[in-house]
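## retry 2 of 3
previous attempt timed out at serialization; input unchanged, resubmitting
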Amino acid sequence: MSVETQKETLGFQTEVKQLLHLMIHSLYSNKEIFLRELISNASDAVDKLRFEALSKPELLEGGTDLKIRVSFDKDANTVTLEDNGIGMNRDDVITHLGTIAKSGTADFMKNLSGDQKKDSHLIGQFGVGFYSAFIVADKVDVFSRRAGTPASEGVHWSSKGEGEFEVATVEKADRGTKIVLHLKKGEEEFADGWRLRNIIKKYSDHIALPIELPKEQAVAEGEEAPALEWETVNRASALWTRPRTEVKDEEYQEFYKHIAHDYENPLAWSHNKVEGKLEYSSLLYVPARAPFDLYQREAPKGLKLYVQRVFVMDQAESFLPLYLRFIKGVIDSNDLSLNVSREILQKDPIIDSMKSALTKRVLDMLEKLAKNEPEKYQGFWKNFGQVMKEGPAEDSANKEKIAGLLRFASTHGDDGEQNVALADYLARAKEGQDKIYYLTGDTYAQVKNSPHLEVFRKKGIEVLLLTDRIDEWLMSYLSDFDGKSFVDVARGDLDLGNLDSEEDKKAAEEVAKSKEGLVERIKAALGESVSEVRVSHRLTDSPAILAIGEQDLGMQMRQILEASGQKVPESKPIFEFNPAHPLIEKLDAEPSEERFGDLSHILFDQAALAAGDSLKDPAAYVRRLNKLLVELSV
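## retry succeeded, writing output
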């Protein structure tokens, strides 16, 4: 390297300082992972060069032999990693090595728990793997030059991981990046060919370009050391191109960690080669945990796209629907052109066919996981369930399949766990039951204790309890499953069909007829507050409830619309009362119209509170209640 110029010292971004502190104090329980991270970054840099060189072959600068080299110096106690990929210019170096260039930096720091093992899993997730070098090194030097720039524009970045770094301009003949790790005292084990070879075989065998180490050569005493020879130590073939029978589970798992920057093994994967009208290979993974930006629908997502083994695009989002945005993997097509762009992908009919097939493959993989490993699937549901609930609205072609993968809490259990599949619900259904009953609400406690469930408890009918914000919206797209229609037990006039005996129906009709006068009287008292008053068939213990009109929005949807600033259509609830309840009997016998009105309004407000709604006039409710209490105490 020539003399350094334009040398300056800069401070790390605050979050990087905190991160380096964690790294230096052994955040990783497995230190050797630093090499996997650096090799993974080098592989990405080579992939990017390969892609850019499709349209600008001059970037290769005559050097088409793409590779990664790892070497060591026992005397100097250093490990050096070098790639001839895209490289970095001065701005790139400051941006990528001086800051955590990710939108989720704050989320990363917020998620740190102080538990070393748990925290170590976050590193790759937030794209900060380069800093793992400081686990084993007390100083890191980076020499880089971006492909296509003159040799005089090389950059030297150096830091001891103590809050600042130096950047200088240097002469660098070759494009790409060279990283020199000055190992800490006690980390000498890594300046060893056998150790490095084993780490590369263990973690990076799947990398689809050669990773070379110096060949071990015996030198007799007094002889001059021969010229350095390099040998490839990894398999250096694209894992997805190999037959499934030749790939071990450990290799699939390591490849996932490479492409997903994750530290946990995936829950499941599917490796497939399609031949015929379309030709492509796919390797799809279901992660074990959710990324920090799962609910940011605009966040980068998608599969790594290769065309005839050549890397083309990270995060190609056209191959899977948005509700499957958590799926990681690779697709390698023989039917697309190498100069394909995101815009072309969105309009290509070949992509529609591939998207349809890949979506079915993912859903099949999830079905298999749910059937064969229900505990693992339950873990998947906790992480990705709310995203899966977006599916029926987005993917009508697979609505039934997606519905079979959904999980709900229900009155069958008492812990609020979302672990009830629709198939299990139907298997437990009462004889003659042709509906799937559900109730939505804000919290499990609220829906579990809702008066709307009283008749269902009495008859032993299971009801699904839906408390996620997305649930009411979901149910507007799910009309039926396995030929059975869904019924919101808080909506419209409840009809239990064959679950009610003829005697029950006749008795209900007679009671309703006998209370027509009370219905009219309550309707007059409540006035514009309600759309209708009627005798309830749902209640056994409570005096009254509020039902939603068949076409009206439920509370969840109203809250979502209000939160987004949209105008909410006006609607009024239906007031239903239980004629057998002592309070209703007293109300019916009340001679004073003023007192009757107060009692009717108190019952209405109590029904609203029981439904989880807020009172439109809390002061009026308190005033009426206090008045009643005073009368009772006299």
